[in-house]
Design a protein that fits this description.
With about 210 residues, this protein is of the alpha+beta class. Helix content is about 30%, strand content about 25%. Strands 1, 2, 5, 6, 7, 8 and 9 form a seven-stranded mixed beta sheet that branches. Strand 1, helix 1 and strand 2 form a beta-alpha-beta unit. Helix 3 crosses helix 4.
Amino acid sequence: MKPIDRKIYLASKSPRRRELLRQIGVDFELLMLRNDPLRGPDVTEFVHPGEAAADYVVRVANEKADSAWNMVQNRRLTPRPVLAADTTVTIDGAILGKPATPAEAFEMLERLSGRTHEVLTSIAVRHKDIAEQITQVSHVRFATLSPASIRAYCATPEPYDKAGGYGIQGLAALFVEHIEGSHSGIMGLPLYETARLLRKAGVPLA
């Protein structure tokens, strides 16, 4: 009898998402979306004018999943479920992306200081005729941060590849007074919701 193929495709560059999938025993193969400066990216992550954070993460996660599934078909790869995700941080209705400079990171963290913000992670799964998506929302309260502590954090590599300019799994855990929601969702992949969608796509999980 031919063994069941339990592997999925992960359409993400995030090392946190890889770690989280391994945590729940999901075997995966990376399927990297193109980010070619000449030909352009497979998925653009620009915020549309007036676009709410909840709409933004759903759109980007779905576009990533659709693009990755099209890649599977066009390359005639082994048909396996495709998982994609997008995470954003929002406060006062504004979407906080990934800071490119220490000044941008400082401004974001100063804005989050002493307040509660939302972290939204949308996950999408594609496999043959299956197209599933779900968004998980967590609320994170930061302690009041001194300018010196923000500057010290911005001097590390941590803020610059993360929405909102911080990663809860790193040094910024010291900033967090309280969370309501999913710790793994704040990291970039809510595991309970992810498992639900993967089971719908036929991936056997405990």
